[in-house]
Structures are given as C-alpha cells and as structure tokens.
Amino acid sequence: MKHDEIVNKILSGDILSEYNHANIITRKDNRDFMQFDCSGFVAWYIGTNGYLRALAEIRGYLRATDFLKINRFYCQDFERIYNHPENLRYWKIHKNIFDMHPDDILIIVYGDGNGHMMIVDKIISRSGNDIELRIVDSTRLLHKNDTRSQSGIGYGDIKITFDNNGILYDPQNPQRTPTYVNAYIARPIK
To answer: Structurally, how many domains does the chain consist of?
Structure first.
C-alpha cells in the first residue's frame, strides 16, 4: 500500500492511527489501528511495498555488527549503514541532501542520538540552500500544513537549510526549534 493510499484511508476514517512505540497493527472499532513510531512506520512501509531484500539487508548488516535492536532499525542505526554503502546492494544512498526525490527516506539524527525518519512525498520548493518538503511520517509533534489533528501517520511540511554550520532541520512545529542535525537520504530498490 503506497503512502497516499494509507493517508487517504486514515483521513477517511477507514484506518485509525496513533504514534506509539508498539509498532503493531491491531483492530479497534472494526478498523485497522496502526500504532507506529517513525522508524517502525518506515520499516513497515518498506516491507509492505515489496522491498523485503532492502529491509533484510539492513537487518543483516546491523546483526553482523551487533547493532540490531528488536529486529528493526532506528535513526541512529542508519548512520552506521550510510557510512558503508559498499555493503548495500538494495539501497541507493544519496550523499548530497539536494539529490533527494519523492519516495526517498529522510533520516534526521540529532546531537543526542535521537532522530526522526520520514518518507519524502514531494519537493515543494528548492531555492538557494533551502528545501521545503511534503513528507509522510508517524509523529506526535505535527508539522506545518499537517493532515493530522493528533499524533499518528499523516502528511506535513518541513524545511531543510544547508549553510556553513551544517544542515538545519526545521520540523515546522512551534514546539520544536530548528536544529542542526545529521541528515541521510536513501531509497530502497528491488
């Protein structure tokens, strides 16, 4: 199921969603209830859309290097993978953040090791050192022009700026200030 189908079903009320570290799909009120955090949603999305080799490749690499946690990857784990593209046959790694395209996975890692993972829906604008993106993710902190009224899976707009200090990630939420981060872009391939 493509991300636009998922979000449309959530918006129509056919599927329920909430941000949750359980990373499961259950039933609630006779509907699917998707309970995912950001990396759990992206991992589910990759597997559901036929990129099983890409998912297995990441898990295998993390298992071999003793970094695998509960059979899935986290944002900070992707840093380890990103720095060894020679080990990846089922991923296209973009080294330049401005090379991202719709359906790429954008991984943000903060200075404390936490992060956020999302799927690029579309490039809204590119100007100078700024990129505005429409993304789909699972989050509890909504973005600009968000389709959600509460936590869960949906669309929102973010902004990324590249300057002399690095990559500035702006989640476009008044509760979060723009922050310098490490950012990684990758696309699973079959």
So the answer is: 1
In whole angstroms, how far apart are CA 73 and each of 39, 70, 76, 133, 156?
7, 8, 8, 23, 23
What pLDDT is recorded for position 72?
64
Beta bridge partners of 32: 15, 27
Tokens standing for 102? 């719709």
Q: Which amino acid is at 125?
A: S
The pair of structure tokens assigned to 137 is 């993710």
Predicted local distance difference test score (pLDDT) of residue 175 = 86
Residue ranges making up the domain that contains 42: 3-188
The CATH number of the domain holding residue 140 is: 3.90.1720
The percentage of the chain sitting over the pLDDT mark of 70, rounded to a whole number, equals: 96
- How far apart are the C-alpha atoms of 55 and 72, rounded to whole Å? 8
Q: Which residue has the higher pLDDT, 85 or 162?
A: 162
Please give the average per-residue pLDDT across 49-70, as a whole number. Answer: 78
Of 164, 165, 141, nearest to 154 (Cα)? Answer: 141
Q: Which residues contact 94 (CB under 8 A, 6 or more apart)?
A: 100, 104, 185, 186, 187
